[in-house]
Amino acid sequence: MYGGGMQPRQRIRVTSAGGVVYRWEGDKPLFLLLASNKRGVWCLPKGLIEEGEDEVTTAMREVREETGVSRVKLHGKLGAIKYQFGFRAKTYDKTVHFFLFETDQADAKVGTEHDAMEWMPYEKALQTLSYPNE
Known about the structure:
The chain is mainly beta. The chain has 2 helices and 7 strands. Helix content is 15%, strand content 50%. The longest helix is centred in the middle third of the chain and has 13 residues, at 55-67.
């Protein structure tokens, strides 16, 4: 501390996009969630928008990279969530745009960023997600 106070944390705005991916098993939709054991969280596939990408392109890329699901049908934008988190003496203001995707691919495979994935019925998926606003 000097000069009467602490330096304010640098604020950084980041924008991501992701997908709520589902497939039909009989007459019931199953939703795809990802797990990270080292962080102990279950979440939806999402990631940063890269230069030259729009939100939908990013969401589709992240779904493909994180789950191996490449055959998706876009059913529209679900909305966006906003939250803040601190990391390495910086504060991040994050916005994530989510899109609804349907697939016929049951053979999803977890990417390198996560440890597990599971297709779940809607109610179980809602209870399993670690972040209530996802």
